[in-house]
Model the fold of this input.
Amino acid sequence: MAEIITMPKLSDTMTEGVVAGWLKKIGDTIVEGDILAEIETDKATMEFESFHEGTLLYIGVQEGEAAKVDMLLAIIGDKDEDISALLSDAVTTTKVEEITKEVQSEEVKQVDSSSEVVIPEGIEIISMPKLSDTMEEGTVAKWLKNIGDVIEEGEIIAEIETDKATMEFESFHNGTLLYIGVAEGNSAKVDAVLAIIGEKGKDISQFVGSLDKLESKSPETNESNNEKVSQVEKKPTPLVADKVAKPVVKRSNSDGRIIASPLAKKLAEEKSIDLQYVRGTGEGGRIIKRDIENYSAPVGGNAQAAFVPSGQESFEDIPNSQMRKVIARRLGESKFTAPHYYLNVEFNMDNAIAFREQYNSIPDTKISFNDIVVKATALALKQHPQVNSQWFDDKMRLNHHVHIGVAVAVEDGLVVPVLKFANEQNLTQINTQVKDFAGRARDKKLALDEMEGSTFTISNLGMFGITDFTSIINQPNSAILSVGAIVQKPIVKEGNIVVGNTMKLTLACDHRTVDGVTGALFLQTLKGFIENPVTMLV
Done:
């Protein structure tokens, strides 16, 4: 069956593309993964690969020509296949989309017609829930019920790890747990079969068998869904280590010749190194230049001893958690779609140090430098709403409220609880709430609404001794502030060199919403608050 290839959307802002060059011509055999063409987008010229196999039967956009996204680009099918019916009306985007949908629908019908599943009466299918707005799959962290247990509505049956937190999942049905479709530690897509609840003693073996057959025919089968908790024992990934190599004396081939490059031989001669004791790292054990340069004869002249390995190679494969997968995807999207630029500043912290010491002298009161930065940032954002903005495809939103996300490192990555209306809170309230967020974040006890709605983000690595760094913007926000450590150093004060305390900050901005001058003015306002913190109390 012929496959319609349309102009791909290769960037978030791309509406049309130009074919910079075709790497295949009509009649060529195409293998999945082959580069078909180079497409010029609004951002770059990118290689476009085929996801289909067959013969290139038709090219719809010539080199140097432009076409809208989803317009007909090419057709791949069987050799000598008649595609006249596809071409007759496929000159518009609408028709191409209709053909594509028909092809996809036909593929679905072919699967459904041969693997139709009828749900028996008296059972309830429990699907993997969508527990966050960005969740695409979940991992069963723990089952709290076993097969055969009686389940009541409202009971917690499992703990599900999402991309943001580990959450309790309760049953909305009464009955007996008859089947578990995802073992502890395994993942499944949203809406995949998680469990079956029904009448005690209900025979569901035929139905479960039908599910397995359907999943085995689905191109998006999650193998973990076919595993049964009663049959699978989750084991830790063992360390894999190579055996320690034996001491190597001679480096030669079967006829006794030493395999070495001419340059290696020349260097060895100059350094009086016997090649038979040199370990070659080139192809096939060939001795090359770096082997001679890195060679050192052992004390006592025992050349053999120089090549006894002192350790062993080992590694451990750790599956990516849902949180780590989503962090990777979202940060990648942000870095490669938002045009980042960075503004670096260094503030004098002498007054802030004195202010904090005096503030903490109040009984039962303690604030951190991070609390001062959060409060100062919130006040500065109120004066510069452009920095407190958000970018969407069809609009830019200026937020008049200030919700600051405070990045917290956890075992699996990073979470960003949100301090809402931060500008309206005093320093003690900020300190209490940030401490509470950090503690519950590490225990994965934050609620979803406590991690949503930020308008700006602060990331602080100063407590780890990091003096300055850059961060990736937490979209759709327009900026993120990176805070470094306070460092004691010589500074110029009133024309004299004195010992002072400074702190470096880096503001990462999305150039689509925040111009350089706008970001600089925001940092000037922030400087005023941090270097004179008493002004935040006025």
